[in-house]
């Protein structure tokens, strides 16, 4: 028997005024899988993730989380999902512990879980700091901690490392790698960093202009790419694959 | 119990957000006190008023044979001619003493007609005296109330040569009893205006800013009850308003002996109703936009007309008659008039029940409408 996917999107379409952001996307995410949604700015990654998060509604198609639609199940689904949005700013003059306590209270969790999260995200020394005084990387770790506070079955992270320096990015990666080793969480992460997708995820979906161009494990994708090119002088990368699919680099 | 814990955490978070901002103490508490102190003192103690008068030269240089110049006689008998050092500042000085209305100091300047007209246009002098055949003419702008007052005072002195006003006029009864002073008029207005400003900027701008920072979106992506967020926001704001208004009133009580002549429980109800009205309006105004610039504009559209028209600093009865019924329907006017009636006229629940109902209904209607179109994302 095939296990029920944790996330399933069937022929999902979404447009904003004149822009068609997502065009007929189908995805299936099984339990425990870390999936990267890879694509340049404007590829439709955030819109797709926001529809999975229940923030946006698809124009057509269907999205189910653990076999359930958002309508009528909001409260239950919010309890099993952890979210980190692009560029969320928390209350400036709230301390790290107070911010976590606030979000913990929505899940009826107490001080113990807050302490655990502070430990996981490595902000022990900053627990009494105001959010406004945190560095970009520390704020991003706090956002990740808030996403993890309810010990979610599904983690949805929208560009969690964009704008961070390599060290800060590595710190986020380490937290997510540990999570992958120790928990049964499924994750969708949007990114336009190839190395992030390679390092963290076991399944990669490449999107551009609202469509899925290719998907598979890194190995599958690169094998496919090598098969298409006859003359290979160096090891192929996801960058090469993206260029061959779209005719341009991912950061253009 | 768990829901109450959520509400408690939300309320505490929003309290901390406000109280940790150093500007809150100044703008919320100290600034209204400074304003009441400044305006209260300025309009309570009458200072000396200097009135500058131009006298056209020929009136002061009559032919030698004619010694009946009324103006010259008046000035020689009553005013003090400037010393050679003072000549640059004025030519004659007349101090009209009045303990109750404040002293009027008339400074007279000799000049030609053209120069006098120029000085009048510049506002340096506001009245020109000219004597023709023993008759004094007063030239001034009849629309200028200050010039009118100068005319009335001068006319009472010049003429038959009799000085009508004395240092202590027993016929003048200045009203200085509690409830009739400017400070009694001002403080209720400042309290109402404080509530309006605090709700509109605290709630409206707070919501718009949180929406623009995507914090609202993040909050509703949890099992948080949406109504709890708004309840916490409004609770925090109303309690802050209560503290700010109480401090302002206590200051007025100690500094100006202000008292509440009416019913205290009605005052509390009316204060609460005003807070409900402006909280509802604030939620409505901030229900849709996530752009803080647009939010600024929307808030100003609500607060500016009321601040100018609702009679906070000066009576709205100075506006044209046709506009008064409209102005009286503004929530700020309703609240201010109600608070003034309790403070100064001894009003109780019977007199304030209707304003309380109107303000509460206004708040509820705006709140529910705002909630219907509220954009969390």
Descriptive notes:
The complex is a heterodimer of chains A (252) and B (377). Chain A is built from 9 helices and 9 strands. Chain A is 38% helix and 23% strand. In chain A, the strands form 2 sheets. Chain A has a 6-stranded mixed sheet with strand order 5-6-7-3-8-9, sandwiched between helices. A 3-stranded antiparallel sheet of chain A has the order 2-1-4, with helices on one face. With 252 residues, chain A is α/β, with parallel strands linked by helices. Chain A has one domain (7-246): P-loop containing nucleotide triphosphate hydrolases (Rossmann fold, 3-Layer(aba) Sandwich). Chain B has helices spanning 2-19, 22-44, 57-60, 70-78, 113-122, 145-157, 182-212, 215-219, 226-256, 264-285, 292-309, 324-327, 331-345, 349-372; strands at 49-56, 80-81, 92-96, 104-111, 127-132, 135-139. In chain B, strands 2-3-4-1-5-6 form a 6-stranded mixed sheet. Chain B is 60% helix and 9% strand. Chain B is elongated. The longest helix of chain B has 31 residues, at 182-212. Chain B folds into 2 domains: 2-43 and 177-372, no CATH class; 49-157, D-Maltodextrin-Binding Protein, domain 2 (3-Layer(aba) Sandwich), CATH 3.40.190. Residues 63-67, 160-167 and 169-173 of chain B have low confidence and may be disordered. Chain B is of the alpha/beta class. In chain B, a hairpin with a 7-residue loop joins strand 3 (92-96) and strand 4. The chains are: A alpha/beta (252), B alpha/beta (377). Chain A binds chain B through residues 53-56, 75, 78-79, 81, 83, 85-94, 98-99, 101-103, 105-108, 130, 146, 150, and chain B through 2, 5-6, 8-10, 12-13, 16-17, 20-21, 213-215, 217-218, 221-224, 377.
